[in-house]
Amino acid sequence: MTTSPLHIAVVGGGIGGLAAALAVARSGHRVTVVERAARFGEIGAGLQLAPNASLALEELGVLDAVRRSAVAPPQLVMMDALTGEQVAALDLRSDGYRSRFKHPYLVTHRTDLHGALLGACREHPSISLRTGHTVTDAARTAAEVRLHFAETPERLAADAVVAADGLHSRLRQILVNDGSPVCSKYVAYRGALPVSSMTGAMAQHATTESVIVWAGPRMHLVQYPVRRGELYNQVAVFESDHYTPDGDDWGSEAELEERFAGTCGTVRDALPLIARDRRWPLFDRPPLTEWVHGRIVLLGDAAHPMLQYLAQGACQALEDAVALGQALGEHSSPEDAFAAYASRRTERAASIQTNARRFGEICHLDGMGAVMRNQLLSGRGTEDFDDVAWVWTPVGDLQPTITS
Ligand code: FAD
């Protein structure tokens, strides 16, 4: 890029916002991140990072930092939550995996990934970070955007803005005004506990390095270790029979117990160790093609909130960030760069959003549907990545180039 650097404001300091800040700064621009929370941080649960995310992290210069605490699981295993039998497995350390994807499949604590991104942002001389700044409005002219905040009458003027303010994005509401996110009626309970605090069968089970998905009727449990294997992450998900659009008393702990009552012993052993302090209703939205609004562009969950069944929300935010950095490196005007970024990203993000819903339906089948799913999947080899390759392989300029 030959023209003078832009000043770009990034709204939201989650995984998407910090990754975007890094990518934009690395493409030669000055960045201010504004985050509404009093401190930067993430909640205490795990995150799967497929090879498309590892590639993006490498492009952002933080893969080594993430790998220091992440676990590279040997397998991705689907189990039947009722019978306790294995349905299918993918070998993530096989030659087939390595030759196809080139980058590792990792599982990490969210705090560790967020911390690696935050550390890199703090070290970058062109990034400044502000907490306690809740964006309420964005006044746009042809040449700049002025952000308004809830806490202060001060305005922040920037040449352009990246809206990485998450599922309930204020900027998306202002720019797109497409209503509220869609609630799936499913809810998650999740958290990561020290393996050293576990006893009995669960202590033994928590030494398993693989990612295990226990699929059952309208429910599932995901388990994997994080932070060098010191913590064991568990996410229990189920559809509530008591959902109401305005209530917050559906998807209760009692319903969790009820829904998981018929599961096999290993799943029932896990339940008492799943955090109950907070429940997470699960939302998405239908795909959106208009990510660019003059000098403001959407990124991460603000652009493409998706159900977590393909474990891709954060992975896609990381892909967004790299694509945005590349576009800003190639185009001197923010409008052109944003248009190039959106044209690279909207179709792929949309298909992952749409297929995440479908994969959830497959995972939650009951009766004959579940029997047929198990029969179909059990015929697949451990190096048969054909069904997931399109998800784990970025398109266009983000194609893997480096062997690791
Ligand atoms: P967020 O993490 O929501 O960050 C938005 C930030 O913006 C926040 O810090 C917020 O405080 C700030 N903010 C909001 N409004 C304002 C405002 N007005 N002004 C200033 N700041 C603001 N993804 C994966 O890739 N792999 C997985 O295994 C995976 N598992 C998941 C499991 C569950 C149960 C769930 C619910 C999600 C999972 N995801 C997974 C999805 C992933 O967590 C999200 O897609 C990702 O965290 C989105 O990051 P983001 O930065 O876009 O949004």
TrEMBL record:
Its cofactor is FAD. One of its GO terms (molecular function) is monooxygenase activity. The keyword Oxidoreductase applies. Residues 8-354 form the FAD-binding domain. Transmembrane segments: none annotated. Pfam families: FAD_binding_3. Keywords: FAD, Flavoprotein, Monooxygenase, Oxidoreductase. This is FAD-dependent monooxygenase. It comes from Streptomyces zaomyceticus.
